[in-house]
């Protein structure tokens, strides 16, 4: 009761002033004079640094990192998937997002995963070729190279080709993923590549992918036509159709990369730049920050701070379910959802002494996207930067490796709303805005994000399905509090996504007192059985012109600085 009384009196935390992070006359360096890469795998980080050492900029390095991750992290991403690349180019102060998200095949239909009675067919949107969207990552890498890079595409792809041909040593994360999905992998030639006698390989085993190396070589030489036309395209289409899918050359011909204006917001003196639709992340992050801004959550006790963050997430995820989808197909009210006046209305229903019940929120009434995405951050010595998040959705996507190509296909079709009222593989619900249509991009939670303030710059993002949004939000709040890249990546995490109406948290995210305090407010808590996410972050602090690269200690990644 004392806790509830204290919270009830805490109206005083509202509308407090936010002191500047550093003195207003702090000198801002023009360039970091240091390059940095943080990614989920050491070989991918080394690939990015190698390309920088050969004269490449941040965009060339991003191509190298992205492609290398597709080789050494086949459980998370690859050329058979897609991604978002948030860019800042210093020379003309350009901010943009390169949208390489997968598209639904032209043969797709709204009810393609439902049986005759209108019920979802188990696993059809998750396993095999029918679960796959048309890959977008290859097109995105070509776009990055042609429009933003300094080096030829073939040069930036050299590390990935080398890793595929010469092999890489499996680590604990790879072994865990193979163990989890070995039965699915056995349904295609993936078993011959990733398994050893039908089982997960032992530590130290070398995985070689000669077919994939040849596929990337054709791509490096031919660019778009080296993947979306010719030998590679014919083999993919043939393999998909022989396995029960329905793809054609028209699917590849109609695939285009789109450059999209990022989502912008402000929060207590900082500027937030994040991913726009078909990502749901940027809208949700700005929405949540706008709700939180009048509260001084940076100076209150842990229970109050976490209660308010959860209430903001609850409302942001409700809007995700109701309004968000591919902006090329539906009218997404982005400006309204990210306006501070809109947040005023959402905040009106928040009580400081009681949790809101999700089913009491107005509007949408119900009807987790892939956790094995990957994120990397890149900064070059001139200050150009990239936040890249890419995926094939669940562990090893749909488990189907295309014969003669050596490439796994995604299972991103599960990210559509298969049927209103039916949650996807990660418990996310959706409405008509994210229903399946031919050639449409499925909604995503991938949220590469920049934070800019008097303190400096942060580049962050993470895999984690629906939990991406909450992890990035918490990372932004930590940066506002002055945290560096290593601290942001290591911070314990908690999550709420509107439905199910419960808080999931890492074991060290809450103290015992905070658990009790949140329960007293009416929150339902569920401790996660494992650590989650893999946030790889770079911070550039203007004071001392200091660059810090931070890899998530939960993973096996590498964060590294390059001094010129």
Mean pLDDT: 92
> Uncertain regions: pLDDT < 50 for 5+ in a row?
1-26, 364-370
What is the CA–CA distance across the termini? Answer: 59 Å
Oligomer: single chain
- Counting DSSP H or I runs of 4 or more residues, the number of helices is 19
Radius of gyration equals 23 Å
Q: What's the total number of strands?
A: 18
| Cα shape | globular
Arrangement of strands in the largest sheet = 6-3-2-10-9-1-18
Given helix and strand content, the structural type is alpha+beta
Structure, described:
The chain has about 575 residues and is α+β, with helices and mostly antiparallel strands. About 35% of the residues lie in helices and about 15% in strands. It is built from 19 helices and 18 strands. It has helices spanning about 1-10, 40-55, 60-70, 135-145, 155, 160-165, 170-185, 190-195, 210-220, 225-230, 230-240, 250-255, 280-290, 300-325, 335, 340-345, 465-480, 485-490, 510-520; strands spanning about 35-40, 80-90, 95-100, 170, 205, 260, 265, 270-275, 375-380, 385-390, 450, 455-460, 495, 505, 525, 535-540, 545-550, 560-564. Strands 6-3-2-10-9-1-18 form a seven-stranded antiparallel β-sheet, with helices on one face. Strands 7-8-11-12-16-17 form a six-stranded antiparallel β-sheet. A three-stranded mixed β-sheet has the order 13-14-15. Helix 13 (about 280-290) crosses helix 17 (about 465-480). It is globular. The model is unreliable at about 1-25 and about 365-370 (pLDDT under 50).
How do the helices and strands line up, and which of them pair or pack?
Elements: H1 2-8, E1 34-39, H2 42-53, H3 58-72, E2 82-89, E3 94-100, H4 137-147, H5 153-156, H6 158-166, E4 168-169, H7 172-185, H8 190-194, E5 206-207, H9 210-222, H10 225-228, H11 230-242, H12 249-253, E6 258-260, E7 263-267, E8 270-274, H13 281-292, H14 302-323, H15 334-337, H16 340-347, E9 374-379, E10 385-391, E11 449-452, E12 456-460, H17 467-480, H18 485-490, E13 494-495, E14 503-505, H19 512-520, E15 525-527, E16 537-541, E17 546-550, E18 558-563
Helix pairs in contact: 2-3, 3-6, 6-9, 13-14, 13-16, 13-17, 14-19
């Amino acid at each position: 009761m004392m806790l509830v009384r204290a919270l009830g009196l805490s109206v005083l935390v509202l509308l407090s002033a936010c002191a500047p992070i550093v003195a207003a006359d702090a000198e801002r360096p023009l360039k970091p004079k240091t390059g940095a890469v943080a990614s989920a795998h050491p070989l991918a980080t080394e690939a990015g640094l190698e390309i920088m050492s050969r004269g490449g900029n941040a965009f060339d390095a991003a191509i190298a990192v992205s492609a290398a991750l597709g080789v050494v992290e086949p459980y998370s991403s690859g050329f058979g998937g897609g991604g978002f690349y948030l860019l800042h180019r210093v020379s003309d102060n350009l901010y943009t997002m390169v949208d390489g998200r997968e598209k639904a095949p032209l043969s797709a239909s709204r009810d393609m995963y439902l049986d005759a009675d209108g019920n979802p067919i188990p696993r059809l949107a998750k396993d095999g070729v029918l679960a796959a969207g048309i890959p977008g990552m290859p097109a995105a890498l070509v776009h990055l190279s042609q429009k933003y890079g300094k080096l030829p595409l073939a040069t930036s792809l050299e590390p990935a080709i080398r890793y595929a041909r010469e092999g890489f040593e499996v680590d604990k994360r790879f072994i865990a993923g193979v163990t989890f999905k070995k039965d699915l992998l056995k349904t295609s030639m993936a078993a011959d590549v990733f398994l050893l006698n039908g089982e997960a390989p032992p530590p130290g085993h070398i995985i070689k992918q000669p077919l994939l190396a040849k596929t990337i070589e054709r791509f490096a030489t031919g660019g778009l036509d080296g993947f979306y036309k010719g030998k590679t395209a014919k083999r993919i289409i043939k393999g998909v159709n022989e396995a029960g899918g329905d793809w054609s050359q028209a699917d590849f011909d109609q695939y285009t990369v789109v450059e999209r204006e990022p989502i912008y917001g402000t929060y207590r003196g900082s500027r937030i730049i994040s991913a726009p639709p078909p990502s749901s992340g940027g809208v949700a992050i700005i929405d949540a920050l706008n709700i939180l801004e009048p509260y001084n959550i940076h100076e209150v006790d842990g229970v109050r701070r976490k209660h308010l963050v959860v209430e903001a997430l609850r409302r942001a995820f409700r809007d995700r379910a109701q309004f968000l989808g591919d902006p090329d197909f539906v009218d997404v009210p982005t400006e309204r959802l990210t306006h501070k006046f809109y947040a005023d209305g959402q905040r009106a229903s928040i009580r400081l002494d009681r949790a809101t019940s999700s089913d009491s929120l107005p509007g949408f009434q119900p009807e987790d996207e892939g956790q094995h995405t990957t994120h990397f951050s890149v900064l070059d010595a001139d200050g150009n930067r990239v936040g890249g998040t890419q995926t094939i959705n669940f562990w090893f996507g749909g488990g189907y490796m295309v014969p003669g190509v050596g490439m796994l296909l995604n299972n991103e079709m599960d990210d559509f709303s298969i049927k209103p009222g039916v949650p996807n593989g990660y418990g996310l619900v959706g409405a008509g805005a994210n229903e399946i249509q031919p050639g449409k991009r499925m909604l995503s939670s991938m949220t590469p994000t920049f934070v800019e303030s008097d303190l400096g710059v942060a580049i962050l993002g993470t895999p984690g399905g629906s939990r991406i949004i909450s992890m990035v939000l918490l990372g932004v709040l930590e940066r506002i509090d002055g945290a560096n890249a290593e601290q942001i990546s290591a911070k314990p995490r908690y999550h709420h996504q509107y439905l199910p109406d419960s808080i999931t948290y890492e074991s060290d995210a809450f103290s015992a007192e905070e658990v009790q305090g949140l329960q007293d407010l009416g929150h339902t808590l569920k401790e996660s059985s494992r650590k989650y996410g893999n946030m790889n972050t770079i911070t550039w602090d203007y004071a001392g012109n200091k660059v810090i690269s931070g890899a998530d200690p939960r993973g096996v990644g590498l964060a590294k600085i390059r001094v010129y």
